[in-house]
């Protein structure tokens, strides 16, 4: 009987102690839990700390994985697709006749300037075709006078330029590049770089002289293809004396000059890397020659189309971003496919302001 009583008292005490412990523990948890002093809080704090640290690591990793937004230092604005020539390898063809209203074009150019643009190149199609060059002239003047861009340039086939244009807008233009693939008139005709009976070479010489007269740096662009790959152009280039002679390897772009919906078929113009190299070797003593193979060319240009959408050529076709005018430069440029490293590697940044060229006019 006595033993049973002892056991009963012992059990009673155990129940009391355990209840007391629970009550005390609950009170302490309530009192200090918010401070994270209790074990539960400590555990929560450690978990929180760990997840913060993990999220930092993840943020660092994603920062490293997210490519840096490229700066639109040098932009090519193809504001029109219309052209009076029919070059067989053309890779910016007349798929639309759209041209932005000039105030919208200016708004987009200002956005680009604010995002870091230093050089603008106007191209097409043929940029002197729309409004007989007035639209182009106004944009050239706007970019130099209002935006104060260090470099404003144009790529043209040269056939639509008049002296009056130089008189009005020449002072605002740094560089004028004229496309010429051959110094044999028949070859230009075979390529399609011609209109009717007009002589492409006469136009080229005329424009070259106006550039000298109106103090615009003169440049030549040539596309090397099956029809001109064996030509020796040294004498003519030395005579014309351009500040730069850009020599491109004929490039195939799906949807522009190849494939079902294309307006051109460039396959018959395509040359091999070796043929391109042979052409370069033949002209290696021309100091101003700047070669551009397909590999260098494809992703190293920031191209804006007539709607001010960046065109991504990484997949061998031109995939458009949304328009800079709708989503801003920073957003649109993410979809440009632009390879900034290749841009620098191919010498995309050069002395591009005529004020810095110290040319003898
Ligand atoms: S000149 Fe020739 S390559 Fe240039 S836009 Fe016109 S058709 Fe195309």
TrEMBL record:
Alphabetical list of InterPro entries matching this protein: Aldolase_TIM, Elp3/MiaA/NifB-like_rSAM, RSAD2, RSAD2/Viperin_antiviral, rSAM, rSAM_sf
GO cellular component assignments: endoplasmic reticulum membrane; lipid droplet; mitochondrion
Keyword flag Iron-sulfur: yes
Residue ranges of the region described as Disordered: 50-71
GO molecular function annotation: 4 iron, 4 sulfur cluster binding; catalytic activity; metal ion binding
Membrane topology designation: Peripheral membrane protein
Signal sequence segment: 1-18
Subcellular location: Endoplasmic reticulum membrane
Domain of life: Eukaryota
Cofactors (names): [4Fe-4S] cluster
Family annotation (SUPFAM superfamilies): Radical SAM enzymes (SSF102114)
GO biological process: defense response to virus; innate immune response; positive regulation of immune response
UniProt key word Signal: yes
Amino acid composition bias (Basic and acidic residues), ranges on this chain: 51-61
Keywords: 4Fe-4S, Antiviral defense, Endoplasmic reticulum, Immunity, Innate immunity, Iron, Iron-sulfur, Membrane, Metal-binding, S-adenosyl-L-methionine, Signal
Domain Radical SAM core intervals: 69-289
A Pfam family of this chain: Radical_SAM
Alphabetical list of NCBIfam families matching this protein: viperin, viperin_w_prok
Family to which this protein belongs: Belongs to the radical SAM superfamily. RSAD2 family.
Protein name per UniProt: S-adenosylmethionine-dependent nucleotide dehydratase RSAD2
Organism per entry: Megalops atlanticus (Tarpon)
């Amino acid at each position: 009987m006595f033993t049973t009583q002892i056991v009963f008292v012992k059990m009673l005490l155990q129940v009391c102690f355990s209840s007391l412990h629970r009550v005390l523990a609950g009170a302490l948890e309530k009192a200090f839990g918010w401070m994270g002093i209790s074990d539960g809080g400590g555990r929560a704090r450690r978990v929180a700390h760990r997840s913060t640290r993990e999220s930092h690591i993840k943020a660092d990793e994603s920062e490293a994985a997210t490519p840096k937004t490229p700066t639109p230092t040098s932009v090519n604005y193809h504001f029109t697709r219309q052209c009076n020539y029919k070059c067989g390898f053309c890779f910016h063809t007349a798929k639309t006749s759209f041209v932005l209203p000039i105030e919208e074009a200016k708004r987009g150019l200002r956005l680009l300037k604010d995002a870091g643009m230093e050089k603008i190149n106007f191209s097409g199609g043929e940029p002197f075709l729309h409004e007989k060059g007035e639209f182009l002239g106004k944009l050239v003047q706007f970019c130099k006078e209002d935006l104060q861009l260090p470099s404003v340039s144009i790529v043209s086939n040269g056939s639509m330029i008049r002296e009056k244009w130089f008189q009005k807008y020449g002072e605002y233009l740094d560089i004028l590049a004229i496309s010429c693939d051959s110094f044999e008139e028949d070859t230009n005709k075979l390529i399609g770089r011609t209109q009717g009976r007009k002589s492409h070479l006469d136009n080229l010489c005329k424009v070259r002289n106006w550039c000298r007269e109106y103090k615009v740096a003169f440049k030549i662009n040539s596309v090397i293809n099956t029809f001109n790959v064996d030509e020796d152009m040294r004498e003519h280039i030395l005579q014309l004396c351009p500040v730069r002679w850009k020599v491109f390897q004929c490039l195939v772009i799906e949807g522009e000059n190849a494939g079902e919906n294309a307006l051109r078929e460039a396959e018959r113009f395509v040359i091999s890397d070796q043929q391109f190299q042979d052409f370069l070797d033949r002209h290696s003593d021309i100091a101003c020659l700047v070669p551009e193979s397909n590999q260098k060319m494809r992703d190293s240009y920031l191209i804006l189309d007539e709607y001010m959408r960046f065109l991504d050529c990484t997949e061998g076709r031109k995939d458009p971003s949304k328009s800079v005018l709708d989503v801003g430069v920073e957003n649109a440029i993410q979809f440009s496919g632009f390879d900034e490293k290749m841009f620098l590697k191919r010498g995309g940044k050069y002395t591009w302001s005529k004020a810095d060229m110290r040319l003898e006019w």
